[in-house]
Write a structure and sequence with these properties.
By secondary structure, the protein is α+β, with helices and mostly antiparallel strands. It folds into two domains: 103 residues, no CATH class; 114 residues, no CATH class. 46% of the residues lie in helices and 34% in strands. It has an eight-stranded antiparallel β-sheet. A hairpin with a 5-residue loop joins strand 5 and strand 6. Helix 1 packs antiparallel against helix 2 and helix 1 packs antiparallel against helix 4. It is rod-shaped, with a radius of gyration of 30 Å. The two termini are 32 Å apart.
């Protein structure tokens, strides 16, 4: 994803060079019209805002004062305005990169099964297992170690699918298993909450044919 962004940014840079030269001409024409008395100060400021220049910014105000007092000529003033536009674009790019990194970061958490109720043999087995969960690509997914561990059980043939449902800030992450006997399907369902680009896992239910097989709380370690 980040490599794609770098390639895209290089392409955008070429476009920016073209747009930049066009912006330079537009700024010069705009400044000439203002100096010639064709544009009022209000219309001049509005036109600069449309070009992406914040006319309330103190840096701009200082430049404008020097330009208006004839300290800066039109070329130096236009170049300075282009620099302001370039700095703003660069800051936006950096902010977008930070957002992408935050979005792509992976958070790992480990849990133990407590207060397990239901199938006694299964509950005893779960007490010996650590459940690892990951928050990745805005989803809570099951860790590979846990999946490998449960596939060792002779009753479980294979994993059919993983499903994830998010409603507001509450989620359900489901691991669907195909059982070796009678062709039954079992669902392990974790319920929890998404909080500030992270998550909590509160409980897990085991269902076979829609009937409860076990229920347990999850404690983070």
């Amino acid at each position: 994803m980040l490599n794609f962004l770098k390639i895209a940014r290089n392409t955008l840079l070429l476009i920016f060079i073209y747009v930049n030269s066009s912006a330079n001409e537009n700024l010069k024409s705009l400044n000439d019209l203002y100096l010639g008395g064709v544009l009022s100060e209000e219309n001049y400021f509005e036109s600069l805002e449309n070009m992406g220049i914040d006319t309330s910014n103190q840096i701009f105000r200082n430049l404008y004062k020097l330009f208006n007092n004839k300290v800066l000529d039109v070329i130096a003033y236009s170049d300075s305005l282009l620099n302001i536009m370039s700095i703003k674009t660069e800051k936006n790019d950096k902010n977008n990169d930070v957002k992408v990194l935050e979005k792509e970061k992976t958070i790992n958490k480990k849990y133990t099964f407590t207060n397990c109720v239901g199938d006694g043999e299964l509950c005893n087995s779960l007490k010996k297992i650590t459940l690892e969960l990951k928050y990745e690509n805005e989803k809570v997914i099951w860790g590979n170690e846990f999946k490998d561990e449960i596939l060792k059980a002779p009753e479980i043939s294979h994993i059919i699918l993983e499903d994830y449902v998010l409603k507001e800030n509450k989620y359900k992450s489901t691991l669907r298993l195909y059982l070796s006997f009678k062709g039954l399907i079992a669902d392990f369902v974790i319920e929890g909450t998404i909080i500030d680009q992270s998550f909590t896992a509160d409980k897990i239910n085991g269902l076979v044919g829609g009937k409860n097989l076990f229920y347990a709380k999850l404690d983070e370690i």
